[in-house]
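Hello again, I could really use a second opinion on something today. I've been staring at a protein lately and its backbone has me curious. Please have a think about how the structure follows from the sequence. I owe you a coffee for this, so here goes:
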Amino acid sequence: MSKNGKNTAGILAGLLAGAAAGVILGMLYAPEEGKETRKKIKDKAGDLKDQAKNKYGEVSEKVKDQYSNISSTFKDTASNVAHTVKDGYDKYKDQIVSKTADVVKDVEAELNDLKK
């Protein structure tokens, strides 16, 4: 996961924990019966759990999408580099073969001149 993703997850966890603590403290100090307060705390905890699951799903999807995009970009770049290297190799290979053929012809011509 990227550094930005870790920061976002940490901030998200901190916000959810702070919200949960605030809700629980507010309910504990509210002037209601214990049974009613416990029910509210349980309901609110369930709501927070659902919210956390939803946020986790959203963040997870974003991370998967970013990974897919980065992976695709990397594959495309690697493919482009491979093609560029191959094209360069083919270009220089053809030039070397051509130069070698010229040198062979020159040497043969020199040998023929020496034989005469």
Remarks:
- The helical segments are 3-28, 34-115.
- The two ends are 77 Å apart (CA to CA).
